[in-house]
Amino acid sequence: MYTNLEKLKDNVYELQIDQEPGTCLKIFTYIALYCNYMKINNVTQSKGTLVDNSTIYYFNVTIEADRADVRKLVDYLHE
Predict the structure, then answer these.
(1) Cβ(4)–Cβ(13) under 8 Å?
(2) 54 vs 3, 13, 58, CA distance in Å?
(3) CA-CA-CA-CA torsion for 16, 43, 59, 22, nearest 10 degrees?
(4) How high does pLDDT run on average in the chain?
(5) Are β-strands 55-64 and 39-49 bridged in parallel, bridged antiparallel, or unpaired?
(6) Is this structure's pTM higher than 0.90?
(7) Rounded distance, CA 76 to CA 46, Å?
């Protein structure tokens, strides 16, 4: 699973993650179970082209939380 994390400003991060079945469900489950203060400000979709000219789709999720908690979310998504 591909993820990219970018800091937008203090305690606001954009997480770009592969669009796979269940990805959004995993994000919201994590927040509900482990980190319910985390805020999702925006979810958008983008796409990229791979070397073989195939298309891959991503979710871009803007999250308001401490960096350590966002990193824990990323680790959870990779499980």
Answers:
(1) no
(2) 18, 28, 13
(3) 120
(4) 86
(5) antiparallel
(6) no
(7) 22
